[in-house]
Request: fold
Amino acid sequence: MSLIAKFFILVIAPILAMLLALLGVETLPTNPLGWFLLLVGVVYIAGVVIVYVIRRERFWESPLNGSPILEEHGDRSLWFITLGMLAAFYLSPIDYIYLPACLPRNAWMSFSGVGLVALGIVQFVWARRVLGTNYSGHVSVKVGHSLVQNGPYHFIRHPAYLGYLLMALGIGLGYSSLAGLASTFLLLLPSLIYRIKVEEKLLFRYFGESYRQYAIVVKRLIPCIW
Reply:
């Protein structure tokens, strides 16, 4: 991972997380999604302090030993996803607070959004736990990397990214934000597709026929569709 990417994760991102938490606090009186934004902001900051500052662990890298055999150079996919996530997570509450409503703002929209966000969290946490030591924020393959096909990976090849998508859709819907929903489809979704293609290029090279057979049976992001 590049020095610029590390600086963003360790310095800029905590500041952005604090701003997200403040947006959550601002919307708390009228929208339950404010609790989610507040939680995300606080958890990210606490995670950086505990994992990196105290434990000295590089949480963006796989804990597998050794240098990457294959990796993405330049972290372009990371920047694309970061842009998409920032747009999806920030535009919705900003739209909700400062702009006139273009969509109905009612309890049905709010709690439908909460439901999608909850599904997204469960999907992401499940995928992350099953992936275990194979996880890496930086797209790379190391010695000992295994092809995970159980848990959510039995149904789709990139379940964590589906979790991102569900959370972003939930925030846009819950805040009744056209800007948030548009950014999810126009920025986040294309960035996830790009990231998937970058990852799979490395996985096809490393696992060969095993991954080809897996890809024939299991779809990428949406079961039975794509």
